[in-house]
Backbone:
């Protein structure tokens, strides 16, 4: 069975401090993994993707994620949070040409 | 490039009424998806079209939900009759056939059933 688990439903950080959003996956096959971001009243936007190339993936707005097969993880990080990063983030598994979304992590950035 | 368009953006109906949502995908995107996103959850795929044919509708509650994409471009999702648990955001997405994992999402329609 294919599934994605986001370990934190809410994360709060101060502006300028690092961001870590955690994601574990379960997949019978070599997975394709993604992070999407959803700002209030806006559509979901692809942040970055892993499709079996480099294990460290860089995305937009300074975000990156590392695929760790031994830990079945795909955590999202950013060295320094900005107020505009406040949004909901979804870890997503691609399989059979479809996407399976995690339950989401709400990121709050404090001034 | 114009994005995925959806209308209406908001809709409030009473239970047992019917409602329809419209989606116009990005030009040239043959694959179209409808998702349901309940508050506090990730989007769940309801139905996937390739051109005007259904690829997967296994999670569509067919007793009350229907969807069509008659000319292989825009699509309509209908609920009839609506239940309280149908309150959610309905998202439309589109992709190129070879880029099924790179989906472009519309802003969604927020449905409230009272």
Residues:
């Amino acid at each position: 069975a294919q599934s994605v688990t986001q370990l934190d439903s809410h994360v709060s950080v101060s502006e300028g401090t690092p961001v870590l959003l955690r994601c574990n996956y379960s997949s019978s096959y070599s997975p394709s993994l993604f992070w999407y971001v959803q700002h209030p009243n806006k559509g979901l936007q692809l942040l970055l993707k892993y499709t079996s190339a480099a294990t460290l993936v860089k995305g937009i707005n300074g975000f990156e994620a590392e695929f760790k097969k031994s830990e079945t993880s795909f955590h999202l990080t950013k060295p320094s949070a900005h107020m505009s990063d406040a949004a909901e983030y979804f870890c997503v598994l691609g399989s059979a040409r479809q996407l399976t979304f995690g339950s989401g992590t709400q990121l709050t950035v404090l001034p | 490039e114009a994005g995925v368009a959806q209308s209406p953006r908001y809709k409030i109906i009473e239970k047992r009424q019917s409602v329809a949502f419209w989606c116009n995908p990005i030009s040239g995107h043959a694959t179209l998806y409808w998702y349901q996103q309940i508050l506090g959850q990730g989007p769940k795929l309801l139905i996937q079209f390739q051109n005007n044919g259904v690829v997967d509708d296994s999670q569509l509650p067919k007793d009350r939900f229907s969807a069509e994409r008659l000319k292989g471009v825009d699509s309509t999702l209908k609920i009839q009759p609506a239940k309280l648990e149908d309150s959610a955001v309905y998202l439309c997405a589109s992709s190129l056939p070879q880029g099924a994992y790179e989906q472009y999402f519309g802003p969604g329609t927020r449905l409230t059933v009272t």
